[in-house]
TrEMBL record:
It is a single-pass membrane protein. It comes from Herbaspirillum lusitanum. This is LemA family protein. Pfam families: LemA (PF04011). Belongs to the LemA family. It comes from the Bacteria. Residues 1-21 form the signal peptide. It is found in: Membrane. The keyword Flavoprotein does not apply. Keywords: Membrane, Signal, Transmembrane, Transmembrane helix.
Amino acid sequence: MKKYFAWLAVAFFALSLSGCGYNDFQAKDEATKAAWGEVVNQYQRRSDLIPNLVNTVKGYASHEKDTLEAVIKARAAATSFQITPEVLNNPQALAKFQQVQGDLSSALSRLMVVSENYPQLKADTSFRDLQSQLEGTENRITVARQRYIASVQEYNILARSFPTNITAKIFSYEVKPSFTVENEKAISTAPAVNFGK
């Protein structure tokens, strides 16, 4: 009878370990890190394209110095931000990362508006190629962010669901912050469209 209870205890212990979710946490954590790596990769690609784009615009729009300097300054801030694995678990650091990337996006938008004023620049093949690459990179950033958000969602569901939330508490698997929109209130309001004067 003691052997029977010993085997039953071993079987129960094995089943409880398989249901604790430890391995799932490892897999989801690695998936989150890989998704984050792709986000960073695409932001780096964008930063690498910017100097070429700025130099091309400089040749045509030398008196748009403020806009060009804003792009250069935003790029410097974005590339100087240290991206470490701790960023994934720190909401303040993730918010700071999002802010510097948002500033860079804003500066690039102003640069594209400036380019509209220069027909020769818009006709320049290298500018068009760089602009196309930058647009493609922005799309890749969006896709990478979506994948990261989905990966964090899966991880957070695992961390908050029973019984794996017990494993999360034991091994300190905290809920991870996700990307957020800085101006959520502003973008929730529909823009006013007025075709009149």
